[in-house]
Amino acid sequence: MSRLRLLCLALLAGSIVLLTGSPIRAVDKDELKVGKEIVDKLLGGAEVKTVADLKKKTSVDAIMTILGSPKAGGVGYGPKADISIEKRLQDLAKKGISAADLAKESGELTKAVQFARAVTEYNELYTPEKKVAGKDPKVWTKSSEDTRKASADLLEALKGKDEKKVHAAAKSLDAACNACHTVFK
Predict the structure, then answer these.
(1) What 8-state DSSP symbol labels residue 11?
(2) For the chain, what is the radius of gyration of the CA atoms?
(3) What angle do CA 113, 63, 66 make, to 5 degrees?
(4) Structural domain span for residue 67
(5) Which residues contact 145 (CB under 8 A, 6 or more apart)?
(6) Which of 92, 140, 154, 184 has the largest CB neighbor count within 10 A?
(7) What is the DSSP string of 18-68?
(8) Which residues pair with residue 83 across a beta bridge?
(9) What is the pLDDT of residues 127-173, one digit of tens each?
């Protein structure tokens, strides 16, 4: 398993619905703290199996919150961390990026995609065991795979500093996220 497999099984943290069909619940500070600890460990090179035991202390909601608004406990994007990782990646998919902005933001965008990959990687532990109310584990797994691939493609495009490839990869990542959200929200 790669160090940073992830992204987006639900970048829309505030709008994801749990497998039961209920909306995401508010996340308490302890759950969020554990969620951030998990992502930090994954970003540091830990494999999911080494942090899987922390699943009992957090939830998919807490993990997804990390990509959301800094006001809601997300880590934030950019030097001021004033917007969500989710929002920046969605904007990148929608509008693309200029060569000048790519040169300025390459490091922050790489960090954002790595966070998203780590979240996706960990969320795979929450794959439904069986199909319930149209929520198929096969869709969850396929969405995870697509998200990992799109994240890897986006990281590669960022390394190459090619704004057209970055835009195309960001669109693929956004589509992978939305494919999951369509079913699991």
Answers:
(1) S
(2) 15
(3) 55
(4) 29-183
(5) none
(6) 154
(7) -TTSPBPPP--HHHHHHHHHHHHHHHTT--HHHHGGGGGG--HHHHHHTTS
(8) 77
(9) 888 998 888 999 989 999 999 999 999 999 999 999 999 999 999 99
Tally of domains within the chain = 1
What is the sign, positive or negative, of the torsion defined by CA atoms of 119, 125, 130, 133?
A: negative
Q: Is the pLDDT of residue 10 over 90?
A: no
Kindly report the pTM of this predicted structure: 0.80
Identify whether the C-beta of residue 10 lies closer than 8 Å to the C-beta of residue 185. Answer: yes
pLDDT interval class at 25 (50, 70, 90): low
| Residue 10 located in a structural domain | no
Other Cβ atoms less than 10 A from the Cβ of 53: the count is 8
User: Residue 11 and residue 120: Cα distance in Å, rounded?
Assistant: 9
41-91 tens-digit pLDDT: 888 888 888 888 888 888 888 888 888 888 888 888 988 888 999 999 999
- Mean pLDDT, range 5-16, rounded to an integer: 30
Q: 23 forms bridges with which residues in the sheet?
A: 17
Domain of 106, CATH number, reads 1.20.120
